[in-house]
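Fold this sequence, please.
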Amino acid sequence: MKAKVFYQHIFSNVSQILQDEKEFQPTSSIIFQHFVDDEFALLLDKEIKPIDISSLDEIFQRLKNDEPIQYILQKTFFLNLPIYVDKNVLIPRPETEEMVLDIFNCPDIEIKKVLDIGTGSGCIALSLKKKFIDAQVDAIDINPKSLDVAKKNAKINDLKVNFIERNILQMDNLGEKYDLIVSNPPYVCQSEKKSMNRRVCEFEPSIALFVEDDDPLIFYKKIIALAKTNLNDGGWLFVEINENFGKETARLMFDLQNVTIHKDINGKDRWISARFLK
């Protein structure tokens, strides 16, 4: 079978299953790459080895049940790092990649110690370790199953990160000073569930997504308090945010410097950066 024929077969099925046209091509490409480990096969329309059609049909059936393709294949990429994912961790988002790319451009600081709060799959911590290879990178999460996934991803990428099981809400001090603290904490209000895609609500871990409506900034209050105590002079804090609470979150940082709300590629308030200066 030629590569283009196989891709068209995938695309035809995917376009009948998914609702959003913007997802047809990327989902089809992900599935194609899963079966064909040759980046030039489609471009050159090479002859490909026989495909396990039963495995392909199983993928289509699971897609029909709204299961995310990343969970079906148990893999994705984050800033070119291969990342294993399962239902114990969130699927890394492009918006989070944007925040990490912004961190890469932090001015006037030598990053030697990094902390990722609520690490999940470990994608943020690992991408920071890849960039700041000599830095000590620590990563906290409350869920031991999430930490198992993060450790697996560290092994896959041959990167050393210190993974720590801890409930950040029960911590009054981090015990160490950091040059950078970053977090993508739970920030979606329970009341927002009804407007969210079923693939998110029914498959991704609620503990990593949702907060109660009566205290939507609970994690930011704790993270910011810890940052004020545990950032080195000149250190940076980056947090991904709920677009509906950008200004409210920024106000919690009133005694930090250079507080900036950043918009993602879709023009939505998506993360805040701030600096600790004595």
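The chain has a mean pLDDT of 95. The two ends are 65 Å apart (CA to CA).
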